[in-house]
Amino acid sequence: MNLGNLLSRLLKEGKIKSQVADNNYLDNLLAAAKRNFEAAALLRDKVDEAAFKLVYDGLLQIGRVIVLSLRLRENYWAMNMVT
C-alpha cells in the first residue's frame, strides 16, 4: 500500500482529518522538540529514563509536524477507539 492510499483510507475511516496549520505553530513544535533533545543530552548519563522520555516526546512533536505539514491531523477519539 502506498502513502496516498493509506492517507485516503485513514481519512475515509475518520482516523485523520484535514487541517491547515499555521507555520508559527509548526516552528514552535520544532523548537520544543529541539529543547527536548538538548535536555535529553544533558541527562543522558545521569537519568536514562528521563532522557529517553524527552527524546520520545521530541520525536512525537516531529511526527506532529510531519502530519500537520501534510495538512492533516490525527483524530484522537477515532485513533483510540476499540473495535
UniProtKB/TrEMBL annotation:
Protein name: HEPN domain-containing protein
Gene source species: Candidatus Saganbacteria bacterium
